[in-house]
Structure formats: C-alpha cells, structure tokens
Amino acid sequence: MNSANIKAVEELLSVPQRIVIIPHKNPDGDAIGSTLALWHYLKNRGHEAVIVSPNDYPKFLKWMPGNEHILNFETKNSQALAAMQEATLIFTLDFNHFGRTGQLEPILEASNARFIMIDHHQAPSNYAEVTYSDVEMSSTCEMVYNFIEFLGDTSTITPEMANCIYTGIMTDTGSFKFSSTTSRTHQVVANLIDKGAKNTEIHNSIYDTNSPSRLHLLGCALKNMVILEEYRTAYITLSQEELDTYNYKKGDTEGFVNYGLTLEGIRFAVIFIENKEEGIIKISFRSEGDFSVNQFARKHFNGGGHDNAAGGRSDVSIEETAKYFVSLLEDYKENLNA
C-alpha cells in the first residue's frame, strides 16, 4: 500500500463504521483466515463488523476463532442481506472481481458502501476506493498482516488473529513450499508464532482430520490419474457418480490436484471435477516453473488465478473437457519441456 492508501484507510477507520467483510465463493483457508483475522482486528478497534460468506466452506476450516459468527448467505440470508445493505464500508478479501462472489455480485454492485480490496490475484477490477493488490504475495493473509502493520497495529495482534493469519499463509503456500514463499513470509510466520499461533495444532486441524470416505475418494482420484509424459502433464477426473459413491463433502478434493506434481518430471497437473448441480466441470490447474496456468486458464477455460495455481470451468461433459484439454497440449509442448 502506498502512503495515500494508508492515509485513506486511517481516515475511514478513524470513525465507527458498519463493516462487512466478504470472501470469495467456495472460500478456502486463505479466504476464511484473512476475513476472520480482519474481523477480529476491526472489532477490537471498536467497529461493527460482520463476515458474509457467499456459501459454505469445508469443515476443516470451521475450528478457527470467530468462525461461529460468519454469516453463510445461503443459510442466513436475511441477516446477511441486512448487514450488506446497512454497511458503510465493505472489505473484499482474496478476490478482485465481484463475479467471484456468485449470488452476492448484484448486491455488491448496487451497494452505496465504500470498498477496500485486499487481494493477490492478477488483473484486479477497479471497484474499490482503496485497492491493496500485490500478485507477488504468498497469500491474502500475509497481506492482512501487512495491512495491520501499515496502520502501526501489529502490537494488537492477538493469538486468535495469529492463528487465522497463519492458517491462510500455510494453506496458500502449500505448507510453505510454493515459490511465492519468501523470506518475508517466514518472518511474518515467525512473528505470528511469537504472538500465539499454534503451528502444529493448525497443521493437524487442516490436514489430519480426514474421514475414511475422503481417503477412499483420494484413492479413486489417483486411480483415475492419466500421465502424459511427452507433455510432462498429469490430469485427474472425478465424475459426479464417483463423488457420490464416496460420500463427497465440500472440501474433500482440496489438494488432490497437487499429487500430479509429486511425480518426477511432471510440470503441469490438472483435476476435472464434475458438478451436476451447477452443470459444469470445475477445473484446478497447478504448474511448476515458468509455465503460467493463469494464462492457460484464461485463454481456454474461462478462469484465471496465479502463474502456478489457477482455476477454470467447462460447460461440456467431463469426457469432452478432458479430450479438449489434451488436444491443447501440443501447442504448449515446447514450453512444457523447456
């Protein structure tokens, strides 16, 4: 954030505000961690603050301090809608286009509130009065830590806030292995531990609470994996029937796409997941090195994200989607084998 943005935020927060904090649809650890950390911070500064999530999120994220106060727009619609309509200030975290909020999009577009965006994805929209956007950042949670630091308030970070921020950084960096993890990231994490973040407990809460059905679904996914050595690519398909067979719950496929990259020589990993309810194939892309899955997803699958992690969608069958995907790889062979 530049000095003008910092001054603008200080002025906005110098008087009591009715604040709503919004994560993206299907929020992940970074989205929930950042919104909860900011919620604690703003409440402690004396503001009215509410988090409105566009929909539900995985059970393994619901242990975080303050989780019980999040309003799920789908199940607490009237409360969430009232909070959004009464808001004087809206923070949007971990996304940069209203379209990423699903059914909240028209409500946000019609809002008379002032907006602050904190996000690390590419190509931000210009809806916010204050935009803190940095694609080099490991996570929105690291940016929330910076945001608090810019305001001179790191001394006010509580153990609850530290746990939430640590969670988002850990999950969005693949437990600190992605290239977006910098020395600054580790410095922030060290400070969070000093402020009370329980790193071992957080890791266990996120990664070591599997159900038998999730592990069986993982086995199915790995059995379905197709390896295309000539393109240094691996992809997984999961049909709705397979999801139903293994009693799929929201969040159960989190991280499955990364298994492709654990194979020696593979640079590009993809998972195609059928969603009958929405009538789409949801796609996650991961890569290593300089192969940009953000550009690939934007060009071919109505998606986007980061250079090494992105999402997309397809409106045709899972078989047609996979076939189309494979047909594209010849044009990228040289890049993938560089």
TrEMBL record:
<feature type="domain" description="DDH">
    <location>
        <begin position="18"/>
        <end position="169"/>
    </location>
</feature>
<dbReference type="GO" id="GO:0003676">
    <property type="term" value="F:nucleic acid binding"/>
</dbReference>
<dbReference type="Pfam" id="PF01368">
    <property type="entry name" value="DHH"/>
</dbReference>
<dbReference type="InterPro" id="IPR038763">
    <property type="entry name" value="DHH_sf"/>
</dbReference>
<dbReference type="InterPro" id="IPR003156">
    <property type="entry name" value="DHHA1_dom"/>
</dbReference>
<dbReference type="Pfam" id="PF02272">
    <property type="entry name" value="DHHA1"/>
</dbReference>
<dbReference type="InterPro" id="IPR001667">
    <property type="entry name" value="DDH_dom"/>
</dbReference>
<dbReference type="InterPro" id="IPR051319">
    <property type="entry name" value="Oligoribo/pAp-PDE_c-di-AMP_PDE"/>
</dbReference>
<protein>
    <submittedName>
        <fullName>Bifunctional oligoribonuclease/PAP phosphatase NrnA</fullName>
    </submittedName>
</protein>
<feature type="domain" description="DHHA1">
    <location>
        <begin position="247"/>
        <end position="331"/>
    </location>
</feature>
